[in-house]
Amino acid sequence: MTEVRDRGETTQGYAAPPRPDATLARPRFRASRGATPSCHGDVPGAAAPAGSPVVALVGAPNVGKSTLFNTLTGAKRTVGNWPGTTVEVGRGVWPTTRAAATCDCETCTCPRQAEPVTFTLVDLPGAYSLDPASPDEALTRELLVDVEPDELPDAVVVIADAAHLARSLYIVAQVRELGLPLVVALTMNDVARHRGIEIDTYALAEQIGAPVVAVDPRRRQGESNLAAAVLGVLDAERPAPRAVDLPGHDGSPCGAMCPLADCGLEDLELADERFEWIDGAVHAGTRDTGDARRVRSDLIDRFVTAPVLGPVIFLAVMWLVFQITTTVAAPLQDALDGIFTGPVSDGTRGVLAGVGLGGTPVEGFLVDGLVAGVGMLLTFVPLMALMFLLLALLEDSGYMARAAVVTDRMMRRIGLPGRAFLPLVVGFGCNVPAVAATRILPNARQRVLTALLVPFTSCSARLTVYVLLATTFYPRQAGTVVFAMYLVSILLVVAVGLLLKSTLWRTMGADPLVIDLPPYQLPTARLTLSVMWQRLKGFLRTASGIIVATVCVVWLLQSIPAVSGAGFGEVPVSDSVYAAVAKSIAPLLSPAGFGQWETVSALVVGFIAKEAVISSWAQTYAIAEPASEREPGQLGAQLHQTFEMASGGHTGAALAAFMVFLLAYTPCVATLSAQKREIGLRWTVFGVLLQLVVAWALAVATFQIGRMIW
Amino acid sequence: MTLTLDRAPIGEPLVFLEASTAPEVARRLAELGLRRGAHLTCVQRTSGRGRVVSVAGSRIAIDAATLVRLTVQPISALDELVRESA
Q: A561 to each of A160, A369, A558, A577, A585, how far by Cα in Å?
């Protein structure tokens, strides 16, 4: 692993600013990296042939680095039109070609035919500068400044936003001071043109001292020019670090033209010099500053970020997402459910009967376990696809950055900056990447607090259980019930945040909110569908693996008798080890109105992953009554009966208590492993205890109050 | 006439004078274009008494606590000074 230098030590003349305190694993450019468990399905590091040049992609947040990375490598990193989407280093293989020579001179050594070339492309977290303000930005600095010379990338591509050029060039100025081969890739050229900004790439390149190439990764344009520019700087001599004329500066150890790395300027003087250099480059390379020309985005923001209307619109947008998700997906879910419980189950039974396994435990395992569990998961595919699609549309449009502004006030009350909203929003998709996304926060305490709050954001896996219960018990108000669960989730985040702030972190001050609002853009179908597919694939990959594994374990435990005199697979589920374990825990949950072993066992399975809750129910009920034929909706009828019995007739209150418990207790083991990595074992254990206590207390309160009403 | 950014009239062209914030916040503001001499305009109030500021074609949302630490001067006041001195 790369050694991090002590604070304040200089590397190549950079005065290292204090590094935000963090205990993150630091990947290297030339070493393979372990994959992170993620529901979002970010690709783990891919390998290029040994000796392939390493090209690093750097740039300010939200300029399209990950989109360009995905376009060049064919990888599928998470992308979004909001700052802080990338919090880890991504690696990929960029296969390209060296163009054939166009000259015909005899002594020329240029290739006669186009040659295939492969680069290792490394996508670094977004950073406005190499002076980090958060751990993800610190990672970028470490990999470009603090590493040993043989660990440096062979070339750096800085992605610059053509519509906000000045802001993108600070890091260009700093990379030029490192003396690394550099190419500047200009993105957002269409936005710049739309705003009347014309960029002269030649003049800009001359001023910067590095090639400037216009690219449009969203439409796959400019890739070959970028490859040619990278090959050009790799073939050329390593550029000299940017120098500055410092006549009369006392601290300068060298002559008239002094590399900034050695000139002995103070931090503020250095920054001023860089801003002057940037102003010169922008002046030479652009024909319009583009000031005050965002009429459409400003008009939308007048409503969307307004003091009162903004939060109302935010709630309405979220309600619409869940309403559309549940109502549009419902008929598709019913159709898929019919296929699995009908033809697929019947077909499997027929085949098993044909080979003499009908009525055996094997039939129970395959039909009531695997087919029912996997079938149940697949019925949720339309629903998840729709929700991921809608969230991807919101992200790509630029709305999420506004949502951070709107929620800033609420976040402040719980001692967190508005930026902490971003990982929490990610948590509504999947808690695992959300915990990793806490790295965008600069303060260690804020990261711990946010990572402890993430499990209370209702992830998409929990959504499947809400939908099943809501459509079973309240079919006409299913969308509203699900929306209510998300409201409870938000309230829970606020309440637990307030609780922790008023007990553990009384002295924690809130960081300021200073956030760039990107212009609204029409989401492109390719990008939106790609993001949706990646998340859906990630969900299915995680869920299917967990479901198959838990189905096997649950089947095994249900087959082992807890009573004497019976053989393996010969007892009803209620007499199995599975039921015995659940029955021993059940009394703890009786005050919450769902102390039946069938419900408790599903919660135990749900500790591993919420995706497995429904399949474990399907297994339990199908095996508990082997004599009856499964019909569509039978699981719902069984659940009705269980909740009614456990609650003494207060079904509504017990159901509400169960859903609150499901929302608040530990989301899954993958989230715990992500927490352990980010905030350590001690805080992770504290978090589990906190979740269990909060879940139990809230569920009991909900039932005890609810039984007076229902 | 100088004033803090939370008091600047919406839509009035301003010049940025000073950020009396923590150095890392001042640096981040400068990276985003809010540095001494930069021209800016407040374009929108947000919930929590924050504001959206237009600078160099960007829109930056800033919270209320930070706004009171940023000093600006209306361009109209600067023009008046120039006229007086002439």
A: 66, 18, 7, 6, 18
